[in-house]
Design a protein that fits this description.
Helix content of chain B: 25-40%
Subcellular location (chain A): Cell membrane
Order of helices and strands of chain A: HHEHEHEHEHHHH
Largest sheet of chain A: 4 strands, antiparallel
Number of helices of chain B: 6
Structural class of chain B: alpha/beta
Number of helices of chain A: 9
Number of domains of chain A: 2
Distance between the termini of chain A: 29 Å
Protein name (chain A): Cell division protein FtsX
Shape of chain A: elongated
CATH superfamily of the largest domain in chain B: P-loop containing nucleotide triphosphate hydrolases
Number of strands of chain A: 4
Low-confidence stretches of chain B: none
Radius of gyration of chain A: 30 Å
Strand content of chain B: 25-35%
Largest interface: A-B, 17 and 22 residues
Oligomer: heterodimer
Mean pLDDT of chain B: 89
Low-confidence stretches of chain A: none
Shape of chain B: globular
Function (chain A): Part of the ABC transporter FtsEX involved in asymmetric cellular division facilitating the initiation of sporulation.
Mean pLDDT of chain A: 85
Membrane topology (chain A): Multi-pass membrane protein
InterPro entries (chain A): ABC3_permease_C, FtsX, FtsX_ECD
Strand order of the largest sheet of chain A: 2-3-1-4
Number of strands of chain B: 10
């Protein structure tokens, strides 16, 4: 009902103290940018781990000298192991081709070998939950020389991802505390500058919510604006990161850039909203204690 | 409307502002409280508005007990008051219209009626040409009229005016008193404090109370 009035009053609060408001806007947007970047790293690393997990497979190398024609029997035995989902033979030519694809321009190094240095192997896709049992059963097969799996890489990535998780929570805590302190001071300063108006409203019988709303709106809108700016800067940073990574690390299974941009938007704006409301209420509570 | 019994107010520094005040005001009365500066007029008004709380006796305004701890109800009660403050308490940077509208935004006035009530009040105080003038640009007397318009626009049950003639010449002071008195009606009581007793000599239909040294003396009938 009084929407126009509250917006006007909020704008008056901004105008009455522009330097503090602009400084608070710059501060909160930079702090939220930090949050957005960590959140982007958090989401990206989670997606990378998931993508690698999705592609989890083991390569089984047979004992030396085993003819490729004998692989069929062995592959049947492998397929019968519980947890094995797909068994496929990668012959020597395909193994060579894959390495050429991975090395790219550096594939010239393979020319120094006489002929094809790679041996055929069996590629197995498996149920991740049963990885341990599948590996034991594969290694127990008499014609199997060794099994290569990517568990070590996955463990390393998972550890990295957990580290990012911890860092994200720490940054979230830091962002929360910092923005709450900034907003609390800003709202209290606004209230101090408007004590006369506030007292007049109280003498006219204005409800507490009516008196407080412009100050809460000031805090919330400032945070939302800061969040929007932070998101914009984070999008630029993500774009730049993808450009930088596309060259040297093309095989890194990063999540879709547009998905990452889109996911950051509600996260950063949501955090801004929550922090804006909380900071404004802390400011109001602090100002009430000062009375 | 107002019931006070044995009302006392002693400030924290020990100053006794009011002593043994007894008062009963009914709807539709016009009451002047006179007395020299420091006699307790403003202190009495502060008690009536809930800006201070009595240190003795009891006070009821518009059915609400005026005591500490009753702030929520006192806040609601204030929405039925029409206060005219000595220093006006207008919102700087806002227009006359915005100031008058302010008092209507939370007192239950229907949204569609707010503008109409505000314009009507400003018209009655003679400021129909200055609706959109910022209050800083108005003269002292015009600001006072805006303050009166804000008080009466909400159609209050009790109008409380603190020294409305304070800085005015005799002619303008009489006009303001006449204006305030004109808002008295069977539902609305008007209570005005003034130190200028000579200005109210001709007010035959009003009750006059005199405060001196925090004690009240009856000058002319008021229900007690």
């Amino acid at each position: 009902m009084n929407g126009g009035y509250f917006l006007k009053e909020t704008w008056k609060l901004f105008r009455r103290n522009p330097v503090s408001n602009l400084a608070a806007l710059a501060g909160t947007s930079l702090v939220l940018l930090l949050f957005a970047l960590v959140a982007a790293g958090w989401m990206a690393s989670g997606e990378v781990v998931k993508a690698i997990q999705r592609e989890a497979e083991v390569n089984v190398y047979m004992v030396e000298g085993l003819e490729e024609s004998a692989y069929g029997r062995e592959m049947e035995a492998m397929a019968s192991i519980e947890g094995v989902e797909e068994v496929r033979l990668v012959d020597r030519e395909e193994a060579y081709g894959r390495m050429v694809a991975i090395l790219g321009e550096d594939a010239k190094v393979l020319e120094f070998f006489e002929g094809n240095p790679f041996s055929a192997f069996v590629e197995i896709r498996l149920d991740l939950e049963k990885t341990g049992d599948v590996l034991s059963n594969l290694e127990a097969l008499p014609q199997v020389d060794h099994v290569r799996d990517n568990r070590e890489v996955l463990d390393l990535l998972s550890q990295g991802s957990r580290l990012v998780d911890v860092l994200s929570w720490l940054v979230l805590l830091g962002v929360g505390v910092t923005t709450l302190v900034i907003l609390t001071h800003l709202v209290r300063q606004g209230i101090d500058l408007h004590r006369y108006e506030i007292h007049t409203l109280e003498l006219l019988g204005a409800p507490r919510t009516f008196v407080a709303l412009p100050y809460v709106m000031e805090g919330v809108l400032l945070m939302l604006l800061g969040g929007l700016m932070a998101w914009g800067m984070a999008v630029l940073a993500v774009d730049e990161f993808y450009r930088q990574v596309a060259g040297p690390l093309p095989f890194l299974p990063l999540p879709d850039r547009m998905w990452l941009r889109g996911s950051l938007f509600p996260l950063v704006l949501g955090a801004s909203l929550v922090l804006g409301v909380a900071g404004s209420f802390f400011g109001l509570a602090g100002a009430r204690r000062d009375d | 409307m107002i019931r006070a019994e044995g009302l006392e107010l002693t400030y924290k520094d020990g100053t006794r502002a009011l002593e043994e005040i007894g008062l009963v005001l009914e709807p539709g009365e016009l009451v002047y409280i006179t007395g020299p500066s420091g006699s307790g007029k403003t202190s009495l008004l502060k008690l009536l508005m809930g800006m201070e709380f009595a240190t003795g006796g009891s006070l009821e305004v518009l059915g609400e007990r005026m005591r500490r701890g009753n702030s929520g109800r006192i806040r609601k009660m204030r929405r039925q008051l029409g206060p005219v403050f000595q220093e006006f308490r207008l919102i700087p940077g806002s227009t006359a219209m915005e100031n008058v509208l302010l008092g209507l935004r939370f007192d239950g006035t229907p949204h569609g009626k707010m503008k109409e009530y505000a314009e009507e009040a400003l018209l009655r105080v003679g400021l129909s040409q200055k609706l959109h003038a910022k209050v800083e640009r108005l003269s002292w007397g015009e600001r006072q009229r805006v303050a009166i318009a804000r008080a009466v626009a909400r159609k209050p049950r009790l109008i409380l005016a603190d020294e409305p003639t304070g800085n005015l010449d005799r002619e303008n002071a009489l006009l303001i008193l006449e204006l305030l008195a004109s808002f008295r009606n069977p539902e609305t009581t008007v209570l005005i404090t003034t130190h200028a007793t000579h200005l109210i000599e001709g007010q035959e239909t009003a009750s006059i109370l005199h405060l001196d040294g925090g004690r009240m003396r009856l000058e002319r009938p008021v229900s007690l």
